[in-house]
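Open question from group meeting: does this chain pack into something compact, or does most of it stay loose? Before anyone orders reagents, we agreed to write out a predicted structure and look at it together. Recording both the input and the output here so the notebook holds the full record.
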Amino acid sequence: MKTVRKMKTLLTVIGARPQWIKASAMSRVLQRAEHGIQEHVVHTGQHVSQEMSGIFFEELGMSAPNTLLEVEFDPARRMGQMMHGIAATIAEIKPDAVLVYGDTDSTLAGAWAASRAGIPLIHMEAGLRSFDRDMPEEINRLLTDQLSAVLLCPSESAVDQLRKEGVYTDCRPGVLVQASGDLMLDTARWIGGQPEPTSGGNKVLLTMHRPSNVDDLDRLKWWVEAIKNCIEKQNIEVIFPVHPRTEQALKKAFGVNWKVQLMDWGIGIRPPAGYVQMMQWLKEVSTVWTDSGGVQKEAYFMHRPALVLRNSTEWTDLVDVGAAMLSPDPAELMERNAQLMARDFTHVFETNLFGDGRAAEHIATALQTWFQK
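C-alpha coordinates returned:
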Protein backbone atom coordinates (compact mmCIF):
# COMPACT_ATOMS: atom_id res chain seq x y z
CA MET A 1 0.00 0.00 0.00
CA LYS A 2 1.34 3.42 -0.97
CA THR A 3 1.96 5.76 1.97
CA VAL A 4 0.32 9.17 1.58
CA ARG A 5 2.36 11.82 3.33
CA LYS A 6 0.47 14.61 5.06
CA MET A 7 1.10 18.08 3.68
CA LYS A 8 3.21 20.24 5.95
CA THR A 9 1.92 23.74 6.73
CA LEU A 10 4.34 26.65 6.47
CA LEU A 11 3.28 29.97 8.01
CA THR A 12 5.02 32.70 6.01
CA VAL A 13 5.40 36.18 7.54
CA ILE A 14 5.85 39.18 5.24
CA GLY A 15 5.53 42.90 5.82
CA ALA A 16 7.67 45.07 3.51
CA ARG A 17 8.65 45.51 -0.14
CA PRO A 18 11.76 43.26 -0.31
CA GLN A 19 9.77 40.47 1.32
CA TRP A 20 7.11 40.47 -1.41
CA ILE A 21 9.87 40.02 -3.99
CA LYS A 22 11.44 37.08 -2.15
CA ALA A 23 8.19 35.46 -1.05
CA SER A 24 6.72 35.57 -4.55
CA ALA A 25 9.52 33.35 -5.85
CA MET A 26 9.01 30.89 -3.00
CA SER A 27 5.22 30.86 -3.36
CA ARG A 28 5.39 30.11 -7.10
CA VAL A 29 7.28 26.91 -6.32
CA LEU A 30 5.22 25.86 -3.29
CA GLN A 31 1.94 26.36 -5.15
CA ARG A 32 2.86 23.42 -7.39
CA ALA A 33 2.50 21.19 -4.30
CA GLU A 34 5.37 18.99 -5.47
CA HIS A 35 7.26 19.31 -2.18
CA GLY A 36 4.45 18.45 0.21
CA ILE A 37 4.29 21.98 1.66
CA GLN A 38 1.25 24.22 1.83
CA GLU A 39 1.65 27.89 2.66
CA HIS A 40 -0.39 30.27 4.84
CA VAL A 41 0.78 33.86 4.31
CA VAL A 42 0.49 36.48 7.06
CA HIS A 43 0.88 40.12 6.01
CA THR A 44 1.85 42.04 9.16
CA GLY A 45 0.56 45.38 7.90
CA GLN A 46 3.98 47.05 8.13
CA HIS A 47 3.52 48.33 4.56
CA VAL A 48 -0.07 48.31 3.31
CA SER A 49 -0.39 51.19 0.82
CA GLN A 50 -0.99 50.50 -2.86
CA GLU A 51 2.37 52.10 -3.71
CA MET A 52 4.37 50.05 -1.22
CA SER A 53 2.35 46.82 -1.15
CA GLY A 54 -0.61 46.35 -3.49
CA ILE A 55 1.22 46.94 -6.76
CA PHE A 56 3.89 44.37 -5.84
CA PHE A 57 1.29 41.67 -5.20
CA GLU A 58 -0.25 42.43 -8.59
CA GLU A 59 2.97 42.53 -10.60
CA LEU A 60 4.54 39.51 -8.96
CA GLY A 61 1.47 37.33 -9.39
CA MET A 62 0.98 36.81 -5.66
CA SER A 63 -2.34 35.76 -4.17
CA ALA A 64 -3.84 37.96 -1.50
CA PRO A 65 -2.42 37.09 1.95
CA ASN A 66 -4.43 34.61 3.98
CA THR A 67 -4.18 36.87 7.02
CA LEU A 68 -3.79 40.66 7.05
CA LEU A 69 -3.04 42.36 10.36
CA GLU A 70 -3.99 45.92 11.26
CA VAL A 71 -1.21 47.77 13.05
CA GLU A 72 -0.32 51.34 13.99
CA PHE A 73 2.59 53.43 12.69
CA ASP A 74 4.41 53.90 16.01
CA PRO A 75 7.27 51.34 15.91
CA ALA A 76 6.92 50.12 19.50
CA ARG A 77 3.14 49.74 19.40
CA ARG A 78 3.34 48.21 15.94
CA MET A 79 5.87 45.61 17.05
CA GLY A 80 3.61 44.46 19.87
CA GLN A 81 0.58 44.33 17.60
CA MET A 82 2.47 42.30 14.98
CA MET A 83 3.70 39.85 17.62
CA HIS A 84 0.18 39.45 18.98
CA GLY A 85 -1.36 38.99 15.53
CA ILE A 86 1.20 36.43 14.39
CA ALA A 87 0.91 34.53 17.67
CA ALA A 88 -2.88 34.38 17.28
CA THR A 89 -2.52 33.09 13.72
CA ILE A 90 -0.06 30.42 14.85
CA ALA A 91 -2.55 29.29 17.51
CA GLU A 92 -5.29 29.08 14.88
CA ILE A 93 -3.38 27.51 11.99
CA LYS A 94 -1.01 25.28 14.02
CA PRO A 95 1.74 25.33 11.37
CA ASP A 96 4.64 22.92 11.23
CA ALA A 97 7.09 25.82 10.85
CA VAL A 98 7.23 29.62 10.53
CA LEU A 99 9.18 31.27 7.71
CA VAL A 100 10.49 34.84 8.02
CA TYR A 101 12.43 36.92 5.50
CA GLY A 102 15.27 39.37 5.90
CA ASP A 103 15.62 41.87 8.72
CA THR A 104 12.52 44.02 9.18
CA ASP A 105 10.46 44.47 12.34
CA SER A 106 8.02 41.98 10.80
CA THR A 107 10.86 39.44 10.72
CA LEU A 108 11.63 39.81 14.42
CA ALA A 109 7.92 39.79 15.32
CA GLY A 110 7.51 36.47 13.48
CA ALA A 111 10.63 35.05 15.11
CA TRP A 112 9.43 35.96 18.60
CA ALA A 113 5.94 34.54 18.02
CA ALA A 114 7.33 31.26 16.65
CA SER A 115 9.77 30.93 19.54
CA ARG A 116 7.09 31.53 22.18
CA ALA A 117 4.81 28.98 20.52
CA GLY A 118 7.55 26.37 20.26
CA ILE A 119 7.26 26.25 16.46
CA PRO A 120 10.47 25.76 14.39
CA LEU A 121 11.63 29.00 12.77
CA ILE A 122 13.07 29.27 9.25
CA HIS A 123 15.09 32.39 8.48
CA MET A 124 15.58 33.36 4.86
CA GLU A 125 18.70 35.55 4.39
CA ALA A 126 20.42 34.23 7.50
CA GLY A 127 24.02 35.17 8.22
CA LEU A 128 23.98 38.67 6.77
CA ARG A 129 25.71 41.34 8.84
CA SER A 130 26.37 45.06 8.42
CA PHE A 131 28.36 45.05 11.71
CA ASP A 132 26.56 48.28 12.63
CA ARG A 133 24.42 47.80 15.72
CA ASP A 134 23.07 51.33 15.45
CA MET A 135 20.85 49.95 12.67
CA PRO A 136 17.64 48.28 13.92
CA GLU A 137 17.93 45.80 11.06
CA GLU A 138 21.23 44.45 12.43
CA ILE A 139 19.63 43.67 15.79
CA ASN A 140 16.73 41.97 14.00
CA ARG A 141 19.16 39.79 12.03
CA LEU A 142 21.19 38.75 15.06
CA LEU A 143 18.19 37.82 17.18
CA THR A 144 16.36 36.01 14.39
CA ASP A 145 19.37 33.86 13.53
CA GLN A 146 19.73 32.84 17.18
CA LEU A 147 16.12 31.67 17.31
CA SER A 148 16.09 29.77 14.02
CA ALA A 149 16.04 26.04 13.38
CA VAL A 150 16.66 26.49 9.65
CA LEU A 151 19.12 29.11 8.42
CA LEU A 152 18.95 29.70 4.67
CA CYS A 153 21.84 31.84 3.47
CA PRO A 154 22.08 33.69 0.16
CA SER A 155 25.83 33.09 -0.13
CA GLU A 156 28.73 31.05 1.24
CA SER A 157 30.08 34.13 3.03
CA ALA A 158 26.85 34.25 5.06
CA VAL A 159 27.37 30.61 6.07
CA ASP A 160 30.93 31.48 7.12
CA GLN A 161 29.61 34.33 9.27
CA LEU A 162 27.28 31.96 11.13
CA ARG A 163 30.26 29.70 11.82
CA LYS A 164 32.29 32.63 13.17
CA GLU A 165 29.47 33.60 15.53
CA GLY A 166 28.94 30.05 16.74
CA VAL A 167 25.36 30.02 15.44
CA TYR A 168 26.33 27.13 13.17
CA THR A 169 28.23 24.55 15.23
CA ASP A 170 28.13 20.88 16.20
CA CYS A 171 26.40 22.01 19.41
CA ARG A 172 23.23 22.66 17.40
CA PRO A 173 22.90 19.45 15.38
CA GLY A 174 19.23 20.01 14.60
CA VAL A 175 19.90 23.25 12.74
CA LEU A 176 19.87 23.19 8.95
CA VAL A 177 22.22 25.70 7.36
CA GLN A 178 22.36 26.00 3.59
CA ALA A 179 23.71 28.44 1.02
CA SER A 180 20.70 28.28 -1.28
CA GLY A 181 21.12 31.43 -3.35
CA ASP A 182 19.05 34.58 -3.42
CA LEU A 183 15.31 34.57 -4.09
CA MET A 184 15.48 38.13 -5.38
CA LEU A 185 17.57 36.86 -8.28
CA ASP A 186 14.86 34.29 -9.03
CA THR A 187 12.25 37.03 -9.25
CA ALA A 188 14.44 39.39 -11.26
CA ARG A 189 14.97 36.78 -13.93
CA TRP A 190 11.33 35.59 -13.83
CA ILE A 191 10.02 39.12 -14.39
CA GLY A 192 12.32 39.58 -17.37
CA GLY A 193 15.09 41.42 -15.57
CA GLN A 194 18.03 40.40 -17.74
CA PRO A 195 21.22 42.49 -17.72
CA GLU A 196 21.61 44.80 -20.68
CA PRO A 197 24.46 47.12 -21.72
CA THR A 198 23.95 50.65 -20.48
CA SER A 199 22.90 53.16 -23.10
CA GLY A 200 25.63 55.47 -21.86
CA GLY A 201 25.34 58.88 -20.30
CA ASN A 202 25.23 59.69 -16.60
CA LYS A 203 21.71 58.71 -15.64
CA VAL A 204 21.38 57.73 -11.96
CA LEU A 205 18.60 55.89 -10.11
CA LEU A 206 18.34 57.28 -6.58
CA THR A 207 16.42 55.76 -3.67
CA MET A 208 16.58 57.01 -0.09
CA HIS A 209 14.35 56.10 2.84
CA ARG A 210 16.46 55.06 5.85
CA PRO A 211 15.69 56.97 9.06
CA SER A 212 19.42 57.75 9.38
CA ASN A 213 19.24 59.71 6.11
CA VAL A 214 15.78 61.26 6.07
CA ASP A 215 14.52 61.71 9.63
CA ASP A 216 17.20 64.29 10.50
CA LEU A 217 16.05 67.22 8.37
CA ASP A 218 19.49 68.89 8.35
CA ARG A 219 21.08 65.70 7.04
CA LEU A 220 18.35 65.32 4.43
CA LYS A 221 19.03 68.89 3.24
CA TRP A 222 22.75 68.07 2.99
CA TRP A 223 21.93 65.07 0.81
CA VAL A 224 19.72 67.14 -1.46
CA GLU A 225 22.42 69.82 -1.76
CA ALA A 226 25.04 67.17 -2.59
CA ILE A 227 22.78 65.64 -5.26
CA LYS A 228 22.12 69.10 -6.71
CA ASN A 229 25.87 69.78 -6.91
CA CYS A 230 26.50 66.47 -8.70
CA ILE A 231 23.81 67.29 -11.24
CA GLU A 232 25.38 70.67 -11.94
CA LYS A 233 29.05 69.67 -11.99
CA GLN A 234 28.99 66.09 -13.27
CA ASN A 235 26.17 66.51 -15.80
CA ILE A 236 24.06 63.82 -14.10
CA GLU A 237 20.39 63.05 -14.68
CA VAL A 238 18.68 61.72 -11.54
CA ILE A 239 15.55 59.55 -11.32
CA PHE A 240 14.24 59.68 -7.76
CA PRO A 241 11.16 57.58 -6.85
CA VAL A 242 10.24 59.03 -3.46
CA HIS A 243 9.36 56.71 -0.57
CA PRO A 244 6.37 57.89 1.54
CA ARG A 245 8.61 58.35 4.58
CA THR A 246 10.99 60.49 2.54
CA GLU A 247 8.14 62.53 1.08
CA GLN A 248 6.94 63.50 4.56
CA ALA A 249 10.48 64.53 5.52
CA LEU A 250 10.97 66.54 2.31
CA LYS A 251 7.75 68.44 2.99
CA LYS A 252 9.05 69.38 6.43
CA ALA A 253 12.48 70.34 5.09
CA PHE A 254 11.46 72.29 1.96
CA GLY A 255 7.79 73.13 2.47
CA VAL A 256 4.66 72.20 0.55
CA ASN A 257 6.32 73.08 -2.77
CA TRP A 258 9.22 70.68 -2.15
CA LYS A 259 8.59 68.81 -5.37
CA VAL A 260 8.77 71.94 -7.54
CA GLN A 261 11.94 73.04 -5.77
CA LEU A 262 13.75 69.73 -6.27
CA MET A 263 12.59 69.45 -9.88
CA ASP A 264 13.97 72.97 -10.52
CA TRP A 265 17.33 71.68 -9.30
CA GLY A 266 17.18 68.84 -11.82
CA ILE A 267 16.16 66.05 -9.44
CA GLY A 268 13.64 63.91 -11.32
CA ILE A 269 10.95 63.25 -8.72
CA ARG A 270 8.81 60.16 -9.32
CA PRO A 271 6.11 58.46 -7.22
CA PRO A 272 6.96 55.17 -5.46
CA ALA A 273 7.57 52.58 -8.15
CA GLY A 274 6.48 49.00 -8.59
CA TYR A 275 8.92 46.20 -9.28
CA VAL A 276 8.54 46.21 -13.07
CA GLN A 277 9.20 49.96 -13.24
CA MET A 278 12.30 49.62 -11.05
CA MET A 279 13.64 46.90 -13.34
CA GLN A 280 13.07 49.17 -16.34
CA TRP A 281 14.88 52.08 -14.72
CA LEU A 282 17.80 49.83 -13.82
CA LYS A 283 18.15 49.02 -17.51
CA GLU A 284 18.16 52.74 -18.39
CA VAL A 285 20.65 54.09 -15.86
CA SER A 286 24.42 53.78 -15.62
CA THR A 287 24.65 54.01 -11.80
CA VAL A 288 22.53 53.52 -8.68
CA TRP A 289 22.64 55.58 -5.48
CA THR A 290 20.68 53.92 -2.69
CA ASP A 291 20.36 53.21 1.03
CA SER A 292 18.14 50.18 0.33
CA GLY A 293 19.49 46.69 0.84
CA GLY A 294 17.20 45.28 -1.83
CA VAL A 295 18.06 47.88 -4.46
CA GLN A 296 21.77 47.22 -3.92
CA LYS A 297 21.23 43.63 -5.03
CA GLU A 298 18.87 44.56 -7.87
CA ALA A 299 21.58 46.88 -9.20
CA TYR A 300 24.06 43.99 -9.12
CA PHE A 301 21.63 41.64 -10.86
CA MET A 302 21.28 44.21 -13.66
CA HIS A 303 25.06 44.85 -13.81
CA ARG A 304 24.90 48.40 -12.49
CA PRO A 305 27.42 49.74 -9.95
CA ALA A 306 25.99 51.25 -6.78
CA LEU A 307 26.90 53.91 -4.26
CA VAL A 308 25.51 52.81 -0.89
CA LEU A 309 24.42 55.92 1.01
CA ARG A 310 25.18 54.40 4.41
CA ASN A 311 28.04 53.75 6.83
CA SER A 312 27.72 50.01 6.31
CA THR A 313 25.95 47.38 4.25
CA GLU A 314 24.71 43.88 4.97
CA TRP A 315 25.69 42.99 1.40
CA THR A 316 29.43 43.12 2.06
CA ASP A 317 30.10 40.79 -0.89
CA LEU A 318 29.08 43.57 -3.27
CA VAL A 319 31.68 45.91 -1.79
CA ASP A 320 34.32 43.18 -1.76
CA VAL A 321 34.00 42.45 -5.50
CA GLY A 322 33.85 46.15 -6.39
CA ALA A 323 30.23 46.31 -7.52
CA ALA A 324 29.31 48.75 -4.74
CA MET A 325 31.01 51.48 -2.73
CA LEU A 326 29.98 52.96 0.61
CA SER A 327 29.23 56.69 0.49
CA PRO A 328 27.88 57.76 3.89
CA ASP A 329 28.86 61.44 3.81
CA PRO A 330 26.90 63.86 1.59
CA ALA A 331 30.00 66.05 1.31
CA GLU A 332 31.86 63.21 -0.43
CA LEU A 333 29.10 62.14 -2.83
CA MET A 334 30.64 63.78 -5.89
CA GLU A 335 34.08 62.35 -5.22
CA ARG A 336 32.77 58.85 -4.49
CA ASN A 337 30.65 58.88 -7.64
CA ALA A 338 33.67 59.86 -9.73
CA GLN A 339 35.71 57.07 -8.12
CA LEU A 340 33.01 54.50 -8.77
CA MET A 341 32.55 55.45 -12.41
CA ALA A 342 36.31 55.35 -13.00
CA ARG A 343 36.40 51.64 -12.11
CA ASP A 344 36.72 48.91 -14.69
CA PHE A 345 33.68 46.65 -14.36
CA THR A 346 34.70 44.23 -17.12
CA HIS A 347 34.70 41.16 -14.85
CA VAL A 348 33.00 42.48 -11.72
CA PHE A 349 29.52 41.28 -12.62
CA GLU A 350 30.71 37.88 -13.81
CA THR A 351 31.05 36.77 -10.19
CA ASN A 352 28.32 34.34 -9.13
CA LEU A 353 27.60 35.65 -5.63
CA PHE A 354 23.94 34.73 -5.21
CA GLY A 355 23.28 31.42 -6.88
CA ASP A 356 21.85 30.34 -10.20
CA GLY A 357 18.42 32.01 -10.17
CA ARG A 358 16.74 28.82 -8.92
CA ALA A 359 17.00 29.43 -5.17
CA ALA A 360 13.32 28.69 -4.54
CA GLU A 361 13.65 25.21 -6.04
CA HIS A 362 16.72 24.45 -3.94
CA ILE A 363 15.06 25.75 -0.78
CA ALA A 364 11.81 23.85 -1.32
CA THR A 365 13.75 20.62 -1.79
CA ALA A 366 15.83 21.25 1.34
CA LEU A 367 12.71 22.01 3.40
CA GLN A 368 10.97 18.90 2.10
CA THR A 369 13.89 16.77 3.31
CA TRP A 370 14.06 18.62 6.63
CA PHE A 371 10.32 18.22 7.31
CA GLN A 372 10.61 14.46 6.73
CA LYS A 373 13.31 13.95 9.37
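Observations to bring back to the group:
The mean pLDDT is 92.
The CA atoms of residues 127 and 159 lie 6 Å apart.
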